[in-house]
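sorry for the late reply, my laptop died twice this morning and i had to redo everyting from scratch. anyway the thing you sent over, i finally got around to it. pasting the sequence first so we're on the same page, its 366 residues, then the predicted structure underneath. double check i copied it right bc i was rushing
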Amino acid sequence: MGKLSFWFCICILVALGLPNAAKVGAEDKIEFYELKKGNISVKLTNLGASIVSLEVPHKSGKPIDIVLGYDTVKEYQADKNYFGSVVGRVSNRIANGEFKLNGKVYKLATNDGKNTLHGGPKGYSHVVWKVTKYENSGNAPFIVFTHRSNDGEEGFPGALKVVVTYTLVAEGQLTVFMKAKSLDDKVSPVSLGQHTYWNLGGHNSGDILEEKLRIMGQFITPVDENSIPTGQLMYARGTAYDFTEPQLNGIGKRIHLLPTPAGYDINYQLDDFDPAGKVRPAAIVENEKSGLRLELSTDAPGLQFYTGNLIKDVKGKGGFTYKTHAGFCLMTQWFPNFVNNPTFPQALVEKGKVYKHHMAFNFTRI
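ok and here's the structure:
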């Protein structure tokens, strides 16, 4: 099956009718799924609980796929860019691959120099998730991915049940709801991220530097030479990191002014964070050529804005070669290295406490 293209696999599933109970409960077998409502179609796989594609109409009326990805299972298995995947147990970086919790130091598997990135060498992005519920039609098509994360997995303490639900709640709106529940008495940090690369001109349309972006966050968490937050907050207005203006700015407008002009890879403190779980606007992106507008909302305190700086001649879907800045990520999250910085918002899961993380992606016309 690894030699078949995603699209061939999906065609087979569609031909079989994609019944609601089909493919549910399979263990360690990579499968593909589709949610469709009106003129939006989302294709997913249980490898990494990943978004494979998302098709919406171009202003010409023709559907375009605005998600970067691959054609084959083998390419996804070898992926180092986290295309479309859910990352965790803790998204982003943990300094020196360790943290101290309740007097005990935990040593983690490292995969970013001395740091742990997106959960380690085999984080959730490389796990084959179990599909426990799936409705591909009706008023609100949805799919539920679950994963049992064992105590000691990549060095993290405690066993967790992790659940990710994708739902097309309305035409043009995709919601993502993540939660994690402790299965024992141990305390563990949790910060799940959804690491899709978007290009509102189409995945094969070139770079995203002319797309216009607004972020509802006035402060960033500046980083050291190892991309670890210093623990301080920096006011972004008037700097190369400023995307706060009501008039949307082009992503590439100030990129040459960055300390590392390769591109953006920084966490924003989003405005109006409410620990009780209030969902509020986080970012808006517009592409004038396609006429598409993406509005992102979340209840998370932070947002990692990344411009695909490390994508270099990657063979993508349809044989198209992705270059640097071929897509952008807007990954809502708890701040990088929060477990080593008590001044940052904390996300610790223990018995009787459930981690919850909401996102809503709303696609409209400009």
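The chain has two helices and 28 strands.
thats about all i looked at so far, will dig more tmrw
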